[in-house]
Fold this protein.
Amino acid sequence: MANKWVLNSTEVPLSFLFCQLVIAVLLFLVAHVTGLIKLPLEFDLQVCKGLIPMVGLNVIGLSFSNYTLAYVDASFYQVARGMVLPFTVFTSYVFLHARPSLAVLMACSVVTFGFFIGVFLDGTPVSLVGVSFGVASSMITAVHSVVIKKSLEVVKGSALHLSWYTNLLSSVALIPVIILAGELPKTLALLFGDLPSLPDEMSPLATFLWGSAITGALGFLMSIASLLSIKVTSPITHMVSSAVRGVAASLLGMWLFHDVITTGRASSIATILVGSIYYTWVKHLESQAPKHTNGSAQYDRVPLEEVEAGRGGKPE
C-alpha cells in the first residue's frame, strides 16, 4: 500500500526501488554496528559471482513488480500477479524435479481460471501493460524462489547473509538500469525541481522520501522473513503464503485508495484464494501420506519440505 501511495504521486519506480534497497542496506549496517547481527563485510568475489543469478532475478522481479503496481489498481495488483503459484509449480518441476500430482495441477488450474476471470471476463478496463508486467513478474518470482534455494548454498545456508548480499548487490546493479531506462532526468526533477502538489496533500518529494523510508524499513524485515520462510519450508509453500497475503492487500486497496472491486474482480480474487487454499490442503495430505518401502509393510513419513522439493527418498 505504501508503494502504491508513492507510485501514485511519482513517475520513478526504479529510483524508488533503489532508495528502498539502499535503506535496507543501511539498516543492515546499523544492526551490524550495534551488534544485533554479524555481517560478512569483506568483499568475496566468489560469493558475488555465485549470486549473479539471484541478484539479476531480484532486480528484474522487483522492477517488474513496481511497474505492475504503477499501471494497475492496488486491489488488482494480486490478480495481475495471480499466476505466481502455477509458474512456481512449473519451475519447481523443471529445476527441482518436483513432479506435481493431479490434485496439485487441479489447484493450479483453479488459480489460472481466477486470473483469467479478473483479466478477461470481468469487463472492467485494465491496463494490458500492467497485466503484462504482472505476468512477467510472476514468472521471475517463481524462478527466483527456486534460485534462492540454490543461492543459500553459496552463503553456507545463512538466510541473513543472503539477504544482505542480495540487497547490497541489487542496489549497485540497479544504478545502470535506472540510467538506461531514462529515469535519471525525472529523478533529478523530483529531487531538485518544484513539482506541484494538490492542496492539503504532501508534495511529490515528501511522499517519495517518506514512502522510501517506510517501505525500505518494511522491505528490510520482509526480505529476511521471506528468505527464512523458503529456507524452513519450500519455494511453493512460500508462494502460497504470499498469495493469501495478497488477497488482504486487495481489500486494503479498496479501503485506502477507494478502488472499485466489481463482482468479476471479487470472483477472481476469491477463485485465486480458493485455488491456493486447496493447494495447501492437498500438499498437507501428501505430506502425511505413508510411504511404502521396497514392497514391505514398512511406511515412512516424508517431511513436507522433502516432498515439495521433489526429494521423496527415505528421510534420515
Remarks:
- The beta strands are 290-292, 299-301.
